[in-house]
């Protein structure tokens, strides 16, 4: 073979499962969101985790590549989503070790695996696959702005990495449990790995962002719901463009604001304070009305993972009273989450 086997196919059936999750040397849990997302939502497809000095953990067994292969692993997934989506030079030796142990590499980073000479040469020599998930489809059109049939819910955030994907997955599952036709639509690399398809919105050329969102959530039957994974934040100094394209193209009937209480500044941007939930609701409605004049906020999803149960419950109730909206933590469920689902599906009884 003269070139490494490379693939951009994001269909789950074609990916080398089960996975060993690679955490690199990550110390910030939010930057390991791919590993946590797969562990939480596709744990049956993960045999363990491996790192080269990481201080975060998914709780899966710590395995070397050789040990993971002995347990049936077929692919190493880079479980990190750092700012800029790059693969540091200091990780290369570990990734080569994984290839030599018999694992294909799966990455959701912006940097392509085959563009790293050492990995390309090793994959060529061993006949291993280098699979890049963060690759948009060809032929994305410019958005039309035309209304499409079906119903849509979009999760939006006060910042990055605080629960938009988890909220969308939990809502889609809750809709289906109620007998509502619904699909989770993945817009980022982790969601694509979980769902088996989607479009990595932050890898799409800017002029085609809204068009990609239209493709992601096509016309459907009138009672069908697409629950769309949000990206970034309309207030983010770096990623707001992706958020706006996704908002305009998805044309949501309903949105849910996602927030992590206690976070004071944008993740990785200490000079930029967090917007309030009210500011996010107001701006989302004003911008979203451009393509869906009837857009409305169903409520708020709070990531209370750092709080004890009693403190979390008290905060959810207090924020619901303050905002006059359902406020829930989807991962805790309960009556608060039921109210959020009720509010999101309110449109079904209005049409």
UniProtKB/TrEMBL annotation:
SUPFAM superfamilies: P-loop containing nucleoside triphosphate hydrolases. InterPro entries: DgcN-like, DgcN-like_C, DgcN-like_N, P-loop_NTPase. Residues 142-335 form the D-glutamate N-acetyltransferase-like C-terminal domain. It comes from the Bacteria. Residues 58-136 form the D-glutamate N-acetyltransferase-like N-terminal domain. It holds the Pfam family DUF1611_N. This is DUF1611 domain-containing protein. It comes from Dyella halodurans. The lineage of its organism: Bacteria, Pseudomonadati, Pseudomonadota, Gammaproteobacteria, Lysobacterales.
